[in-house]
Amino acid sequence: MKSSRRSFIKKSSVLGAAASLSTLPFSLLANSKADNIKIGIIGLDTSHSPAFTKLFNGENPSPELAGFKVTAAYPYGSRDIKSSMDRIPDYIAQVKELGVEITDSIEAMLEKVDVVLLETNDGKPRLAQARKVIQAKKPFFIDKPVAASFADTQLIYQEAAAAGVPIFSASSLRYMSNAQAVRYDGKIGKVLGCDAFSPATIEAGHPDLFWYGIHGVEILFTVMGPGCESVSRVNTPDADVVIGKWKDGRIGTFRGTRTGKHEYGGTAFGSDGNLVLGKYEGYEPLAVKIAEFFKSGVSPVDSAETLEIYAFMEAADESKRRGGEAVAIGSVK
């Protein structure tokens, strides 16, 4: 990785946190139907879109989600991934029942909302879509995958930081209770290592782990924290096994399953014992963090950590191309 890229990964979180709250296009005190913070969605080709809409627009949302409403959506979205395209008509119907207006362009949607959920399932159009959101100065949550390459992911973060536009991305698996307790509450003392797993189905046009492996990789980084230096990858008939070496000598692994039952989880190893990380807990914990982000303008996940996650996955692809050779994350471009 060039020195400028390394510098950006280190400094990007500082730039994001420094964005003035006065630039947010709504009142932080919104608490009635008349002054709801209006959310727009880009992409109705993923189950995440109706799931978030149901949480924010339900008759009795949790207190943490009160004061928000999804009001407009642009459906597209992937236009060349059939499994995504086929979902769009049903998801349009679902969100319309919840009071969401469907627009015929991203630009029209942006005029109607305060903040954005960029949900397009396909990473390939993400950079172009994110640029429209950034130009409109709308804070946005960008779902997985941020883009279809590390280079595009980095560009999105660079351009958002340069424009002073708050950005946040995370898998919902980051907010598994035990993973959070290990990282922030010292539940098992000093973290010595972690083995994480998730499905890792592959979609053409994306580095292998970007499409679904991101979930397990995010579990791994939630527990271990940033600081991975090199990645090596071993492929088996049923799974991808990726071994990360952290700068302090710790080892963390990700096992991405391509066949069999799809499950999410892992085991964290600590100085005070080990802990099974548990099961997926749904979208609401992430939705709560998104709501907090929209109010504060500060991402709950350091942008440098998010960029390292995507560099880790890109390095895993490079290791695959090199027959399992260790690849330095700093060499990823």
Automatic annotation (TrEMBL):
SUPFAM superfamilies noted in UniProt: Glyceraldehyde-3-phosphate dehydrogenase-like, C-terminal domain, NAD(P)-binding Rossmann-fold domains
Keyword Lyase: no
Species: Algoriphagus antarcticus
Domain of life from the UniProt record: Bacteria
InterPro entries the record matches: Gfo/Idh/MocA-like_OxRdtase_N, Gfo/Idh/MocA_oxidrdct_glycsds, NAD(P)-bd_dom_sf, TAT_signal, TAT_signal_bac_arc
Signal peptide boundaries: 1-30
UniProt keywords, alphabetically: Signal
UniProt lineage: Bacteria, Pseudomonadati, Bacteroidota, Cytophagia, Cytophagales
Protein name per the record: Secreted protein
Pfam families noted in UniProt: GFO_IDH_MocA
